[in-house]
UniProtKB/TrEMBL annotation:
It comes from Ceratodon purpureus (Fire moss). SUPFAM superfamilies: PLP-dependent transferases (SSF53383). Residues 20-343 form the Aminotransferase class I/classII large domain. The keyword Transmembrane helix does not apply. Belongs to the class-I pyridoxal-phosphate-dependent aminotransferase family. LL-diaminopimelate aminotransferase subfamily. GO terms for biological process: systemic acquired resistance, salicylic acid mediated signaling pathway. The keyword DNA-binding does not apply. This is Aminotransferase class I/classII large domain-containing protein. Its cofactor is pyridoxal 5'-phosphate.
Length: 363
């Protein structure tokens, strides 16, 4: 696809590496200025983000564990349930091992914010306890739910009131087709309470190339008043020597106007796949969510079937791999996630098999 051609050509240019003039050794840990400027121009124009507040990395997942390392094992954290498993799993790795689930009234260091159709995928903040950090992913993986401006204003106000730091994951912002905020920094005051992490993985298929970034605004402070950016820089420089110069050359191609144009075309292709998938599940009578602002459809199965049983049934009877909702947290039980990242003919084939599997049943 065109986007691949654009960045592969640029990555080949990094072959200047074999020449005396073109060789580069360790680069600056924060990433090259041109790439940070390119990101500001492509994704943060008019949002007051400076290139020196951007840290280039080998991916958002890798930055999540570095952020956990930055905050340490003694903090309390909140995460959406369901959500990308890395937030909770990395917190367990650094030692925040006890869970809190409002339904069971257990208290520990991890607070699950249930985000399901019943609450319109946004937690009732008036019922949430204070935590030191709040991981929030919008558009959400797996539900595809996207927070509105008003909801994000509430979240920022909640963090400000409690002295919490939001870690906002905008890995799917490029898939948004409505005017909900694409970055937390669209919300006034977010610079004082939020870090944003994002990635080229879903933007341009860099899952194997590896490139992401994290924004830490200069105003963001710990409770003792010291700047978070200084400590994040220290954690990064201690644990990381910068993203590969080859993938950074690819990233630079992505944020060029030619690269962005190719990216939007590719995203459009996956959005059409998503539409086809959603329409199929809808026509079979399922309750579906997401699909508009993310490359995923979130499907509820009737009764209280376990998501692993649903996964097994679709795998065994239709040879299709889905993702069981339970893998994204307790709130994902009873759901599966369908991904649009596939060739069109495979998507069409999958819809036909789903129709023969579920077409006769009434759901
Ligand atoms: C895929 C994904 C990422 C990407 O992580 P990388 O390490 O950059 O590949 C980050 N956040 C979410 C929510 C994701 O789904």
């Amino acid at each position: 696809m065109k986007v691949t051609i654009v960045y592969v050509v640029h990555m080949q240019r990094a072959h200047g590496l074999s020449t005396l003039k073109g060789y580069t050794g360790y680069g600056s840990e924060q990433g090259p200025k041109e790439l940070r400027e390119g990101l500001v121009k492509a994704f943060y124009s008019d949002l007051g983000i400076d290139k020196d507040e951007i840290f280039i990395s080998d991916g958002a997942k890798c930055d999540v564990i570095r952020l956990q390392l930055l905050f340490g094992p003694d903090v309390t954290m909140a995460a959406q349930d369901p959500s990308y498993p890395a937030y909770v799993d990395t917190s367990v790795l650094v030692g925040q091992t006890q869970g809190y689930y409002p339904d069971t009234q257990q208290y520990g260091k991890i607070v699950y914010m249930k985000c399901l159709p019943e609450n319109n995928f946004f937690p009732d903040l008036s019922k949430m306890p204070r935590t030191d950090t709040i991981f929030f992913c919008s558009p959400n993986n797996p539900t595809g739910a996207t927070a509105t401006r008003k909801q994000l204003e509430e979240l920022v106000a909640f963090a400000k009131k409690n002295g919490s730091i939001i870690i906002y994951d905008s890995a799917y912002a490029i898939y948004m087709s409505d005017d909900h905020p694409k970055s937390i920094y669209e919300i006034p005051g977010a610079r004082e309470v939020a870090i944003e992490t994002s990635s080229f993985s879903k933007v341009a298929g860099f899952t194997g190339v590896r490139l992401g970034w994290t924004v830490v605004p200069a105003e963001l402070r710990f409770q003792d008043g010291s700047p978070v950016i200084k400590d994040f820089n220290r954690v990064l420089c201690t644990t990381f020597n910068g993203a590969s110069n080859i993938s950074q050359a690819g990233g630079l191609a992505c944020v060029s106007s030619e690269g962005l144009e190719a990216i939007h075309k590719m995203v459009g292709f996956y959005k059409e796949n998503t539409r086809i998938l959603k329409e199929t599940f809808d026509s079979l009578g399922f309750e579906t969510y997401g699909g508009q602002n993310a490359p995923y459809v979130w499907i509820r199965f009737p009764g209280s079937q376990s998501s692993w049983n649903i996964f097994d049934e679709i795998l065994e009877k239709a040879d299709i791999v889905t993702t069981p909702g339970r893998g994204f947290g307790p709130g994902g039980e009873g759901f599966i996630r369908a991904s649009a990242f596939a060739h069109r003919e495979d998507i069409i084939e999958a819809t036909q098999r789903l129709k023969s599997l579920y077409g006769g049943k009434s759901n």
